[in-house]
Amino acid sequence: MKQRLLELLCTHSYIEGTVKLASGKMSDFYVDCRKTALLPEGHHLIGAICHDLITTHFPQAEAVGGVVLGACPLASATSMASFSTKNPLPAFYLRKEAKGHGMGRLLEGPVKPGARVVILEDVVTTGGSTISALESAKVEELEVLGVISLVDRQENNGAALIAREVPYFSIFTKSDILAHGKE
Questions:
Q1: What is the mean pLDDT of residues 20-46?
Q2: Considering 5, 60, 64, 103, which has the largest number of Cβ atoms within 10 A of its Cβ?
Q3: Which of 88, 90, 86 is nearest to 76 (CA)?
Q4: Diameter of the chain measured on Cα atoms
Q5: Model pLDDT for residues 48-76, shown as the tens digit of each residue
Q6: Cβ of 78: how many Cβ atoms within 10 Å?
Q7: pLDDT at position 119, please?
Q8: Residue 181 above 80 pLDDT?
Q9: pLDDT score at 155
């Protein structure tokens, strides 16, 4: 499963060329995980792999969340994969800032204060958006058990920054993607 997901990421999500990242830094490549996560096979594989990681490392989790927008499909896929298990996990989405209309929420989904949750992230570079998500989760009174990213770019100590706050796991790294591309 994991090897097939890596193939899909390398085929559909890995893009070479100069691009500005969310951190404001320039890079010579980009990994747009949504292009894989929104494929039926990618959605299935991501859900199964993330659910397995949560079951193994965070068995007490009560919900799974994604950082808007990139990790929303990851959270939905994982929630769907959990449906037929002993511990189905509802999905929720965390915004970077409260909505300026409607209920003005940071969090969307059926999760109550005090819930033990795992936050998913599509790509980690500096860790800044993930740390913001952890702060939003704290405002929403969630107990974050850990963070799982689909890809760690292995740059700017992003993984270390997150790991100082909560346990952190990455399914793939920049090295995995670049090594696969050379096969």
A1: 93
A2: 64
A3: 90
A4: 50
A5: 999 999 999 999 999 999 988 899 999 99
A6: 30
A7: 98
A8: no
A9: 87
Q: What pTM, to 2 d.p., does this model score? A: 0.94
101 DSSP 8-state letter: S
Q: What is the pLDDT of residue 163?
A: 97
Both tokens of 127, joined, read 């860790």
Confirm if 105 and 99 have CB atoms less than 8 A apart. Answer: yes
The structure tokens listed for 7 are 């193939």
Cα 100 to Cα 182: distance, rounded to the nearest angstrom: 46
Grade residue 182 by pLDDT with cuts at 50, 70 and 90.
low
Angle (CA) 1-178-77 rounded to 5° is: 35
Q: 161 with 129: CB under 8 angstroms?
A: no
The residues, any chain, with a CB within 8 Å of residue 52's CB and separated by 6 or more, are: none
Per-domain residue ranges of the chain? 2-181
Judge whether residue 99 has pLDDT over 80: no
Q: Give the domain 2-181 fold.
A: Rossmann fold (3.40.50)
- The three-state secondary structure class of 83 is coil
Contact by Cβ (8 Å): 117, 111: yes
Which residue shows structure tokens 């740059």? 155
The Cα–Cα gap between 92 and 76 comes to 8
The rounded distance, in Å, linking the Cα atoms of 26 and 30 is 10
